[in-house]
Amino acid sequence: MRYTRLTEPLVRENGEFRETTWEHALDRAAEGFRRNLDRHGPDAFGMMSCSRATNEMNFIGQKFVRSVIGTNSVDSCNRT
Questions:
Q1: Residues with Cβ < 8 Å from 25, sequence gap 6 or more?
Q2: What span, in angstroms and rounded, lies between the C-alpha atoms of 75 and 69?
């Protein structure tokens, strides 16, 4: 089985994926966060982290969720 590596971001339009720019893909992701925060509030968002992530990656992730999103719903699988 051979896998093809993605080299460009993809967006879904009308049920189909198409290539786009990084700027457009990040704008769409931010728009989705904004729309769901407006619709459901910050506590509808949660972040899960991986135990293989570095302390720095975990720190910046929880800082983003708490400062930007506005929720304390942060967890990781470090206990297992």
A1: 9, 10, 11
A2: 15
pLDDT in tens, 11-27: 999 999 999 999 999 99
Contact between residue 73 and residue 47 where contact means Cβ atoms under 8 Å apart: yes
Q: What is residue 16's predicted lDDT score, i.e. its pLDDT?
A: 95
Per the listing, tokens 């899960």 go with 48
Do 11 and 17 form a contact (C-beta atoms < 8 A)?
Answer: yes
DSSP conformation letters of 8-77: S-EEEETTEEEE--HHHHHHHHHHHHHHHHHHH-GGG--EEE-TTS-HHHHHHHHHHIIIII----EEES
Nearest alpha-carbon partner for 43 in 76, 75, 65? 65
